[in-house]
Design a protein that fits this description.
Phosphorylase Kinase, domain 1; 16 helices; alpha+beta; four-stranded antiparallel β-sheet
Length: 676
């Protein structure tokens, strides 16, 4: 279905298709109201009759629209028109992470990869806090802008934990190479499943390969369930130890052994940039052989009885053996035993002394600077310094510091400032921007609407447009839904009527008409016409091949409609003037007496040439030929052709001489050409 030129919602004009997905097709479009380029995702035609898919599509928009984050593609609008269901979102100029991996053909720089992973994890942190699970984290769904910013896209398969409608679909969605084990077996997926997929993405970035691959999706899924991945550091020894540990922790098959939150993973990723070879990643071992067994009461009692007797005997036997060996050793090494005893006595005495000193003179700790970092990371740094972490009240609102991050600390950070171990460090945590409720201003006068928004601590951005139903100076619509939550100082775009000053017209169908007839028909409607030309040999010359706005489209009077007119090139003649003497060098005029008594010279060099002219794109066919042309002359040739052609002029003589010239000829505009 060709949607180019179609206008959705009387606002979004489709320009071109830019991608395909499993559920939808993505188009580049222009928002004619806000005058900006956007991406429009349209549900594939085969799903438009399936109510379940339509519900999922709408749920995607509702879930994703709640996510406002610099590393998440923004959702602007959602709507439907006929059997077209669409979502309008931010248009990203850049490449997918998958495209970058393929282009590089191998591992990406580990620092760059970690920075990308931090951005993805930050996006997931935001989504998870809003109870949204992506469920399809893969390089194909990560856009990298021209400025190097990573943006997570395609929440079309996101699972809103709080939304039973989406959960009910229960289908295995996503790409099998990036599945978590629980996802592969159709089990419950949560935030830890997204972190597993992020681990796979990191693995692919630093090695150039996915951890599991096979000929079939089923085989890949089984590997996720049953096999352990090759450590990435074995494939790329250049990556730091900490990065290897982070990836392997994210790829644990048991969700309980992975990172439990995106925040937790972010802490380690940021540490890795500062201390690449540090030993800070808490890594638990996964035992694929461990199984939970059910034991009946009789077996349990039997085991208990055996255990009590056998263990007692075993302990006695071992104790006896150990005691005997120890006594024997003492008897054989009396001097050594005495020295060891003195060392132990000294160690005990030193330990007691140090304990007393610690009580009377407690150790000091270097006060960390935790302002501007997340509260989880702040807590970890404070407690790692043997200090006590404490939050001040419920936190404070901040327009500058993101929610969950530290605004200030007490004591204030001073470089190289030490405090007593066990001292309390009190932090103020940001609650993000202060929240407010968006009022309903539709139908209000412009002044009244602006005041209502200001009273709600919001700003108004006024867009004026014509309306056939709303009188001048009154609000037609607002882009932020009323009664929804917004941050203080956010901007709400309101559309205010300028009255009915601009007439709207319906575009007629002019395809197949002559250029003049089409122009007249559109101009009669009050539209402007721009003409472009194309060539289609199967259509009549001079007829309209296509129009920018399809028939039936409603547009403002004065809108420019572009028509494409068929222009088939006609055959024309061009005269070539060939300077044979200049090309071949000609020949010397001479006389011959036979015995050369008059002082003249004789020559046997060829005095004539054969000339052939051909089309470079079709060298086997000559357009013009002539034989026996005098080398000292200039020859004219008339060649017939159409459009732009490159001609090859070849001259040959009987002695094997060969001269070639290339000349470009535009048969539409040229009448003569010189060849020399």
């Amino acid at each position: 279905m060709n949607l180019e030129g179609k206008i959705l919602g009387n606002r979004y004009e489709i320009i071109e298709k830019i991608g395909n997905g499993g559920m939808a097709t993505v188009y580049k479009a222009v928002d004619n109201v806000l005058k900006r380029n956007v991406a429009v995702k349209i549900l594939r035609e085969e799903f438009t009759t399936d109510e379940e898919f339509i519900k999922r599509f709408e749920a995607e928009a509702q879930s994703a629209a709640r996510l406002i984050h610099p590393n998440i593609v923004s959702i602007y609008d959602v709507g439907s028109e006929g059997n077209l269901y669409y979502i309008v979102m931010e248009l990203i100029q850049g490449k997918t992470l998958k495209e970058i991996i393929v282009e590089e053909g191998g591992p990406l720089p580990w620092k760059w990869s970690v920075n990308v992973a931090i951005q993805i994890a930050s996006a997931l942190e935001m989504a998870h806090k809003n109870n949204i699970i992506h469920r399809d984290i893969k390089p194909h769904n990560i856009m990298i802008t021209e400025d190097g910013v990573a943006k997570v896209t395609d929440f079309g398969i996101a699972k809103a934990v709080s939304n039973s409608t989406i959960t009910a679909f229960g289908t295995t969605i996503g790409s099998v190479h990036y599945f978590s084990p629980e996802h592969a077996r159709g089990g419950y997926t949560d935030a830890k499943s997204d972190l597993y997929s992020l681990g796979v993405v990191m693995y692919e970035m630093v090695t150039g390969k996915v951890p599991f691959d096979a000929d079939t999706p089923v085989s890949v899924a089984l590997k996720h369930l049953q096999e352990q991945p090759v450590e990435p550091i074995k494939l790329n020894p250049n990556i730091p130890v900490s990065i290897n540990k982070i990836i392997m922790k994210a790829l644990q098959k048991d969700p309980n052994l992975r990172y439990q939150t995106a925040t937790e993973m972010l802490v380690d990723l940021r540490k890795a940039l500062k201390n690449p070879n540090g030993d800070f990643v808490e890594q638990l071992e996964y035992d694929p052989t461990a199984k939970t067994q059910k034991i009946d009461t009789a077996m349990y009692n039997s085991l208990q009885g055996d255990s009590s007797e056998n263990q007692s005997d075993e302990r006695s036997e071992k104790s006896g053996k150990k005691d005997g060996k120890f006594k024997s050793f003492i008897k054989r090494h009396k001097v050594l035993s005495s020295i060891v005893g003195l060392i132990l006595l000294f160690a005990i005495s030193l330990g007691v002394t140090l304990a007393v000193l610690n009580v009377t003179n407690p150790a000091e700790a270097l006060l960390p600077n935790v302002v501007g970092i997340s509260k989880d990371e702040a807590k970890q740094q404070i407690e790692s310094a043997n200090l006590v972490y404490e939050e001040s009240g419920d936190g404070e609102y901040s327009a500058d510091v993101p929610e969950g991050y530290v605004i200030s600390q007490d004591p204030k950070y001073i470089e190289n400032y030490h405090v007593k171990e066990g001292s309390k460090v009190t932090v103020v945590i940001s609650k993000g921007k202060e929240k407010t409720t968006v009022p309903n201003v539709e139908g209000k006068s412009q002044d009244e609407a602006v005041k209502m928004l200001e009273d709600a601590k919001l700003k108004a951005d006024i867009v004026q447009e014509t309306s056939q139903t709303v009188k001048e100076g009154y609000v037609i619509s607002q882009e932020t839904d009323p009664d929804t939550e917004a941050s203080v100082d956010d901007t709400v775009v309101i559309h205010v009527s300028t009255g009915t000053g601009i007439k709207q017209v319906t575009v007629s169908n002019v395809v197949g008409q002559t250029e003049d007839a089409a122009k007249q028909a559109l101009q009669n409607l009050g539209l402007k016409v721009n003409t472009e030309y194309d060539e289609d040999a199967s259509k009549d010359n001079g007829v309209v091949l296509k129009q920018s706005a399809s028939s039936g489209t409603v547009v403002d009077e004065g809108t420019t409609i572009t028509i494409t007119v068929n222009r088939v090139a006609e055959s024309k003649d061009v005269t070539l003037t060939i300077d044979v003497k200049k090309i071949t060098g000609g020949y010397e005029t001479s006389t011959s007496t036979g015995n050369n008594t008059t002082g003249g010279t004789t020559t046997s060099e060829p005095k004539t040439v054969n000339i052939a002219i051909s089309n470079q794109s079709n060298p086997g066919t000559n357009l013009w030929t002539a034989s026996g042309q005098d080398k000292n002359n200039t020859v004219t040739a008339t060649v017939t052709g159409k459009g732009q052609m490159t001609l090859i002029v070849t001259l040959t003589d009987s002695a094997g001489g060969n001269w070639t010239r290339q000349v470009s000829v535009n048969f539409n505009s040229d009448t003569t050409k010189s060849v020399s």
